[in-house]
Amino acid sequence: MALAYLGSNKTNPTSPMSSPPQLILTQDQLKKIAAYKAVEFVESGMVLGLGTGSTAKHAIDRIGHLLSQGKLTNIIGIPTSTKTHEQASSLNIPLSDLDTHPVLDLAIDGADEVDPDMNLVKGRGGSLLREKMIEGCCKKFVVIVDETKLVDYVGGSGLALPVEVVPFCWKFTAKKLECMFEEAGCVAKLRVCCENGGPYVTDNGNYVVDLFLKKCIGDLRAAGDKMLRLAGVVEHGMFVDMATTLIVAGEFGVT
Question: Active site residue: 40, 113, 131, 178, which one?
Answer without folding.
Answer: 131
